[in-house]
Design the sequence.
């Protein structure tokens, strides 16, 4: 179990303060109000990483969490929280919606909008955090879906997915396919949100623009390593015309070619900072993510990040205290 905090190891008089501090670090900063801020206060937090997504489980005494507009302005969250309530009765209020939660209920928490969440007595919840930028959905669409998750045919599927993912989290999070599990979770949440506000069927063969753009970006993200990835291949894979593909992108003010390059550079930047890949040359990593021309790659990397790939790798190695491992020139 990936226990990151347990008041069993904290002196009773210090538990309330310790829980407050741990909660700020495990989730988005918020005001924490304890039902009984004395020695009876207790909590255990578990966190498992699945690539860019994670599971956060909390089991604790009565508590109220209030996230304010000021906290959102100063520390916006890059994540969206989808939670399954696991213990006791809870209540939350957000965007004018008030809801009572029973065990097993699925709910969405927009970490970039004020909220008030609480439970009295011992309670527990398991939360799946997914990156907002990978959902590829407008914030307005996400917020429109929040009150209607129960309408989605994905509702029980997502609830069961989070529950089972948590039950097997120790094994899944340490498996080489952990990142794939996270990616699959993002896809499920996207389906949940889209189907909560869209009809089950669409007239004709063309998807609504919002959904189509998400499909385009998702296909790109999954095929970044393909050096032949281009608009023609994407259109064929999604069974839409090239003209319609460009129309969708233009309507969203979205440059497909530049986004592909940007996503590839981000992946390469992550790999160059990964100590486990120190044995790979920069050229090999760039080629792995679709850059055939090393000079073109180096130029784009420097323009984007203001530093060369070699300088970036050296800096991250020094920061981690590992030094630089004989890295062949690009």
Sequence:
């Amino acid at each position: 179990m990936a226990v990151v905090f347990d008041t069993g190891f904290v002196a009773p008089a210090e538990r309330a303060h310790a829980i407050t501090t741990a909660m700020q670090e495990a989730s988005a900063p918020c005001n924490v109000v304890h039902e009984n801020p004395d020695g009876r206060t207790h909590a255990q937090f578990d966190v498992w990483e699945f690539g860019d997504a994670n599971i956060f489980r909390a089991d604790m005494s009565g508590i109220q969490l209030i996230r304010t507009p000021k906290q959102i302005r100063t520390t916006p969250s890059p994540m969206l929280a989808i939670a399954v309530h696991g213990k006791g009765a809870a209540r939350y209020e957000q965007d004018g919606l008030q809801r009572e939660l029973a065990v097993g209920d699925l709910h969405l928490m927009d970490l970039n909008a004020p909220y008030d969440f609480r439970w009295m007595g011992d309670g527990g919840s398991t939360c799946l955090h997914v990156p907002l930028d990978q959902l590829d959905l407008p914030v307005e669409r996400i917020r429109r879906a929040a009150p209607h998750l129960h309408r989605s045919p994905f509702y029980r599927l997502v609830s069961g997915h989070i529950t089972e993912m948590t039950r097997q989290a120790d094994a899944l999070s340490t498996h080489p396919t952990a990142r794939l599990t996270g990616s699959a979770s993002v896809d499920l949440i996207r389906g949940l949100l889209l189907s909560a506000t869209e009809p089950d069927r669409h007239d004709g063969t063309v998807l609504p623009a919002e959904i189509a753009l998400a499909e385009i970006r998702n296909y790109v993200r999954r095929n970044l390593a393909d050096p032949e990835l281009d608009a023609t291949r994407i259109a064929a894979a999604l069974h839409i015309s090239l003209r319609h593909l460009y129309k969708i992108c233009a309507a969203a003010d979205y440059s497909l070619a530049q986004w592909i390059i940007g996503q590839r550079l981000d992946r390469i930047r992550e790999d160059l900072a990964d100590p486990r890949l120190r044995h790979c040359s920069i050229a090999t990593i760039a080629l792995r993510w679709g850059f055939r021309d090393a000079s073109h790659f180096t130029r784009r990397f420097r323009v984007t990040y203001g530093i060369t790939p070699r300088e970036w790798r050296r800096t991250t190695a020094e920061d981690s205290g590992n030094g630089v491992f004989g890295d062949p020139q690009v």
